[in-house]
């Protein structure tokens, strides 16, 4: 079946299988910045934004996004670089596998009302698991990134 | 496997017609637990664009559309303002924002999940469900009625009643499903005590409710003891039945103290 949707701001038409997840379809079409983690909607590694909201792409049918807007880490290269540098500066990244999902959650969090204080960062990013670094260094890096934004 | 079809109707009427034309079609609500590839789904009818993703004040109370997400329940001011925000509190820590953005009211109710916090909260507030064909019915009746595969759950109605309510659960990690959950609600002459994740789904507890209505010294503790004695508990990966029974007494008493204070 065909789906037409806005992928990183560009109208895109893909031929997909009705059984595919959004994660599978994205990776099959070369958007390999989106990673597969637990594949049970629990780890946040595959996070993309659907109509501006963070969702686990492993649990969204690809067919669902027809007529909607999907943003992946490939669509936010400058933010991805800035977050990556902040993570590296705080030693908060070892394997880096969780970083693309974390970037997308941060992009969504920045659109939310209210100041990005410690509590908000902890609760909003609770769905992004990192098994390398622990969360203290990651939290420092995120605060540094948010503080250093223009 | 037969060729698969995926429909995204733009309205409930259109969805209903599709179900009529395709016997055996599966409705996709949230989709979090639907492994499209692993189930023999030949026809999927996704309600994502069917206009059911609302929270609104209706004529009889607060209306939650079947496709309203947990994230909406968590953040919406109407839901936070209803019955001391007990519905919002019940869903706000489940897994993560991403999961809560795809988990829906309708998908949860159709799943009849034992671990569900939302089901426990809704049962304590005398919630009704609205079905496209069968009309409105109390949530408990929905759970005990064999579902009509051609029907569609369109939403939940929370009646305009002055509940004072409280939520309690215990989780092994902050964002895990509950080891046990409870919602307690009271208003003039009425009390509701619901306990879920036993690990079976939320059920009301008549003796605990009677203890709250009787009132007097130690009513909250009596309600806790009554719930622990009356309900059935089981073992699973999160806790033993014995642990849950102990926990039930404590959590129900704490929630009851909050609503009685």
Description:
Chain A has 5 helices and 5 strands, in the order ββαβββαααα. With 150 residues, chain A is α+β, with helices and mostly antiparallel strands. Chain A folds into 2 domains: 72 residues, Ubiquitin-like (UB roll); 73 residues, [2Fe-2S]-binding domain (DNA polymerase, domain 1, Orthogonal Bundle). Chain B is of the alpha+beta class and 261 residues long. Chain B folds into 3 domains: 44 residues, Uridine Diphospho-n-acetylenolpyruvylglucosamine Reductase, domain 2 (2-Layer Sandwich), CATH 3.30.43; 105 residues, Uridine Diphospho-n-acetylenolpyruvylglucosamine Reductase, domain 3, CATH 3.30.465.10; 97 residues, CO dehydrogenase flavoprotein, C-terminal domain (Enolase-like, domain 1, 2-Layer Sandwich). Helix content of chain B is 36%, strand content 23%. In chain B, α9 runs antiparallel to α10 and α10 packs antiparallel against α11. The N and C termini of chain B lie far apart (59 Å). The relative contact order of chain B is 0.12. The interface between A and B is medium-sized, with 30 and 26 residues.
List the helices and strands and how they pair.
The complex is a heterodimer of chains A (150) and B (261).
Chain A: E1 2-7, E2 10-15, H1 22-28, E3 47-50, E4 53-56, E5 69-71, H2 77-89, H3 99-111, H4 118-124, H5 136-147
Parallel strand pairs in A: 1-5
Antiparallel strand pairs in A: 1-2, 3-4, 3-5
Chain B: E1 5-7, H1 12-21, E2 26-28, E3 43-46, E4 55-57, E5 61-65, H2 70-75, H3 77-81, H4 86-91, H5 97-102, H6 105-111, H7 117-124, E6 128-131, E7 135-138, H8 139-144, E8 153-159, E9 164-171, E10 178-187, E11 190-196, E12 203-204, H9 206-214, H10 219-230, H11 241-260
Parallel strand pairs in B: 1-3, 2-3
Antiparallel strand pairs in B: 4-5, 5-8, 6-7, 6-8, 9-10, 10-11, 11-12
Helix pairs in contact in B: 9-10, 10-11
């Amino acid at each position: 079946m065909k789906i037409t949707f806005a992928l990183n701001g560009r109208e895109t038409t893909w031929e997909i299988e009705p059984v595919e997840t959004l994660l599978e379809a994205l990776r099959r079409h070369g958007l390999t910045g989106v990673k597969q983690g637990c594949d049970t909607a629990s780890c946040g590694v595959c996070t993309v934004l659907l109509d501006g909201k963070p969702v686990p792409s492993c649990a969204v049918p690809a067919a669902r996004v027809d007529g909607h807007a999907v943003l992946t880490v490939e669509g936010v290269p400058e933010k991805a670089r800035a977050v990556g540098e902040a993570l590296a500066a705080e030693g908060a990244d070892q394997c880096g596998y969780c970083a693309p999902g974390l970037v997308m959650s941060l992009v969504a969090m920045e659109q939310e009302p209210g100041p990005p204080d410690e509590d908000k960062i902890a609760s909003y990013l609770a769905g992004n698991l990192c098994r390398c670094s622990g969360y203290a260094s990651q939290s420092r890096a995120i605060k540094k990134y948010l503080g250093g934004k223009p | 496997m037969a060729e698969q079809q995926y429909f995204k109707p733009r309205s409930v009427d259109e969805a209903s017609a599709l179900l009529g034309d395709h016997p055996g079609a599966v409705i996709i609500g949230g989709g979090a637990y639907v492994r499209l590839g692993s189930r023999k789904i030949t026809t999927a009818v996704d309600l994502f664009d069917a206009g059911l993703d609302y929270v609104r004040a209706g004529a009889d109370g607060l209306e939650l559309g079947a496709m309203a997400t947990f994230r909406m329940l968590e953040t919406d001011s109407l839901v936070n303002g209803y019955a001391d925000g007990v519905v919002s509190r019940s869903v706000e820590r489940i897994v993560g924002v991403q999961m809560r953005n795809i988990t829906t009211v309708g998908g949860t109710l159709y799943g009849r999940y034992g671990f569900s916090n939302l089901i426990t909260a809704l049962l304590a507030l005398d919630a009704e469900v609205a079905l496209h064909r069968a009309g409105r019915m109390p949530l408990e009746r929905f759970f005990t009625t064999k579902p009509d595969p051609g029907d569609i759950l369109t939403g939940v109605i929370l009646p305009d009643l002055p509940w004072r309510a409280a939520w309690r659960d215990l989780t092994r990690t902050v964002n895990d499903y509950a080891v046990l959950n409870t919602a307690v609600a009271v208003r003039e002459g009425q009390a509701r005590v619901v306990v879920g994740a036993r690990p079976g789904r939320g059920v009301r507890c008549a003796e605990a409710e009677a203890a709250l209505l009787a009132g007097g010294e130690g009513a909250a503790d009596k309600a806790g003891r009554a719930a622990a004695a009356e309900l059935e508990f089981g073992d699973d990966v999160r806790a033993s039945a014995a642990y849950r029974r102990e926990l039930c007494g404590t959590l129900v008493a704490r929630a009851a103290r909050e609503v009685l204070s």
